[in-house]
Each structure stands twice: as structure tokens, then as C-alpha cells.
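C-alpha cells please, single chain.
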Amino acid sequence: MKYNRLGGTGVFVSELCLGTMTYGGKGFWTVIGKLGIEEVTAQLHRAVDAGVNFIDTADVYHEGESERLVGEALQTLGLRRSQLVVATKVRARTGTGPNEVGLSRKHIFDSIDESLRRLKLDHVDLYQIHGVDSATPLEETLGALDDVVRAGKVRYVGFCNLPAWYAMKALALSGSQGLARFVSAQVFYAIAARDIEREIVPLAREERLAILPWSPLAGGLLTGKFKAGEKGPAEARRAQFDFPIVDKPRAFACVDAMVPIARAHGATVARVALAYLLHKPFVTSVIIGAKTDEQLSDNLAASDLHLSPEEMAALDAVSALNPEYPGWMVEFQSRDREPGSSRRD
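Here you go.
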């Protein structure tokens, strides 16, 4: 298992992160997974044995049940707290009240205490806002995050699902006011959904943010179980919950390109899809999630799958983004400004 720095911090996380969206069994989340304490404990044990030190959950997963199960499993396994990097999130609705949602100071303060109680921890290593809250001033959110860091309940803060301009605004405000600064960006990234390469990746490189891809298999669409014009296995998550949004013709073209590569390596298509992301230099840790031991073992094996430059080039080509403005103009105008360029216009 390879370990990468978490953004500009001195913390190192495994290149695979154990996601916990399949842990629980409440509400609509059951279509994603409904693993109980025995399965959760076994998964955590297997992942840690494989070298994973990074665990990601959220207060909204299974109405808090995911956090509770993670906390119980960690206690059962007796793992050293310093051995793990535990992340959770805040923003989504956690109750029926008008203030049980969002990124207000009140909801953040209430939510971190509830998350710590369920996780049976005195702090989390990474506390991430789960998206934009248009009802709360950004300054209020950043101030509250800084306060939970100063209180010792949180070590670092990160964000999920923010537009690049909004994330940069937050970073600028944090810098000017001396507040705890975002160190990571948890974002949807898969071979068939490379949108973050337009704006988020350049931002992350410039501002030293860790890139943490979620749904690297596009909700199961990139496992090879689905084919164009077919619904796929009835028990598959995508067949019941068609999310996240992805260009399906592009996704099926990617699968077609990965099949021969998978065969050549004696691997699954899913493992190739994960390995493709692991070969991207800007990716810090890919968040995997599994409903079965077989899926988890296969996902973990992606860490050992090495793709050749030719294989990466073929996958880059089939999944390439269409040029968009102003990106193509920036690239055009930079052609004589790159190191080693001798063009003169």
C-alpha cells in the first residue's frame, strides 16, 4: 500500500480509503448497502490488514448508523487511534427541525458532538463540509470550522462537492482571517467522469489540496456488469439508484477499452478502473466501498495493479474530455510559455 500526503499537511494517508456508505440499513440508503456490525468489523479488519489507514464516513449515511457502526467496530478491534485517519462530514439533513441541516455555526457545533458520540472518539482527523449551503454566509461556516479545530475536536478540515470558484473564495477568506484552511477536496472522479480536471485539479495543485475521489466506479457502472441498452443485474445499486450522473455512452466506451486490459492482467474491469485513478499523480486517496468481501478484496487489489504507459494512454484517449472554453484558450495562449518552448508569434 502506498501512502500520500494529505494535501499540504504532514499527515500521510493510504492511497485507498475505506468508504462506509454501505454500512447501516436505514432509509433509502439500503439500496446502497445494509451491512451490520459483523460485516463492518470484518471489512475494517481486512482493510487495515491490507495497509489502509484512512476511513471516510458521514453523519448522513444511514441516518447516523454508519458512524455508529464504525465506532463500534473500531472499539471491538482495539486499533490504536494514532494508527488511523478518520474522516466524517457535515451539511446534510440529520433531523426534521429547521436547524438540523446546513453549515450554520449551530448545526456544525451540534453535528460534530453527535458524530464524535457515535464514533466513540474524542476527535476526527478530517471534518469535511458535504457541499454548499446557500443559506449560511461562508464566513460563518469557516469561523465555526476553525472553532471546532481550536477546540481539539477536529484536526483538519476539507470540502466535498464545491465549485472551484467557491472553494477558492473559502481558501482566500481563511487565509486573510487566519482560520483553519481546507486541506482536501472530496470529489466525484472516475475514468468516465473526469470533469474535475478542468478546474478542481488545477486549484488543488496550486493550493496543495488532497484530491479524494468518491464513487470511482460511478455507482457500479464501471464494473463491467452493465452494457449499453441493458438494465444490468437487478441487485446492483445502479439498477435501483441511478447515481451519480455520468455520460453513459462515454462510460460504456471506457468499459469496452478496459476489458482487454483487464484480461491481460488477469484482473476485473473494476480493478482496472480503480488502478487508472491511482496512476493519476494528483490523486491522493481513492474512496472505495463494498457490499461483499469479494468486492472489497478486489478493490484492495487495485493498489497492486500497475498499468503500462501504453495502457494509460489508451484509457486517457477513450475518456478524454471535450475541449471547453476558456480552457482551450488558456492552453492555446500558453503554447509558447511552457518551459522549453521556442515559439515566437
